[in-house]
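Now for a specimen:

…
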Amino acid sequence: MSFNSLVFLIYLVIVLVLYYALPHKVRWIMLLIASYIFYAYWNFKLIFLILATTLTSYVAGLLLDRVKKQWLKNLLLVVTLVICLGLLFFFKYFNFISGSITSLLRVFGAEVDDFFLNLILPVGISFYTFQTLSYVIDVYRGSIDAEKHIGYFALFVSYFPQLVAGPIERPQDLLPQLKSEHKLNTDNLWQGFKIMAAGFVKKVVVADTLARYVDSVYNAADMSQVTGLAVLIATLVFIVQIYCDFSGYSDIATGCAKMMGVELMVNFRSPLFSESLDDFWSRWHISLNTWFRDYVYLPLNYRAMGKKHLRARVYLNLLIVFFVSGLWHGANWTFVIWGLYNGVCQVLEGLLKKPKSALCAKMGWTENGPKTRIIRILKTNLIMLFGLVLFRASSVGDAFMFFGKLFTDWSATGQYFTDTFALMDLDVVGAITIVLLTTVMLSLDKLIIIPRGKDLLPDGSKVCHATGYIYIVWLIAAAWLLLISLGQSSAFIYFQF
């Protein structure tokens, strides 16, 4: 079941009514059933995968909590990782690995046939697998106690607002909230509705509208018609599209949970205003990046402590994390290269930190002055822009073709601009639309999402002056229903991951 559907709105109303009508002691049963219905709506058979992951991690947690011998705990952890990650790798990466091996063998002259399985990628498998692994690893480390109640644990894994595309919640944050009694609170309903409305606008109005300009270039039927200017415009628009698409989902999930009194973690903090790559990754998809930090990067660095060439090892670990992150995003070499590209850029940024400071001093610029901050923001977004060419391209070949266009295919003739705008079906109205939608996105973040639907901004100032804008958001969200009824909505980008 997708958030941007009429079925979901009906479903949500029913769930909320039952949630507050039922006694607290049986709410978890209703929520668990509702969550499985939400997931099974796509494909009933795939429900058994999430059940298998849930049961495996639940039993592993109980055993890890009881076992005292370290070697046995290590064995239990490895077995659990093999089972949970094995399911993920089989369904998501088997055909990718098989195709890659076949292509490699052909390079060396071997005559081999393609071997692919007719597999369906289970929606959200990357997200709920990581969520269960965070639980198992935390129990293994002794950071938390194992959850004894299998019902609440199953609800932790399958809680429908964040099941399909996050945020990836930690057990110590979500489990206590699921167990707590939440009484009907009109303020929670009101604030949750505002955040959801903003998320719907970001997805359906902003992201889906911009998608057609991006698709006209990256999915062009005749790539020879694509120009460097078209690639530049499409990629710049894609930055806004993917941000609104994914953060829109996170906002809907956050608002939905808020209506039930549950606070999900903030998944985005205005990443497009980041002043460095490190700053960007601390603002973008926060739940995933902190997961990689806590369960991959920091353990690798801990093992490197006290050894020679520590700094080189830290940078190597950074590359490993970004490689895994790229692979997590999709079974395609474009994502792997995208991950490594970001890792290399992150390493270079670390290496150039001191020379950059020296250059600022030589130029007489204040490192945190307005001029340098603007330069840093532009530099960060430029680096991300090149990476998004890889992220959006369908294949490595297409990606390098787009890079070739971006760096070589330019002209100042009137025909060049005419051909570019014709390809993208972009006119003056379209250009104004892009600017207005970007402004809407920034306004939504400033007025609703950043303060999390509260009546105060982070600096303590009231947002009552924004009431008019908020009503406009609600009006647009209502218009979204009409768009859905006409079949104009599209799936969330991160559903494929």
Residues 6-184 form one domain. The chain has a mean pLDDT of 83. Residues 188 and 400 are 48 Å apart (CA to CA).
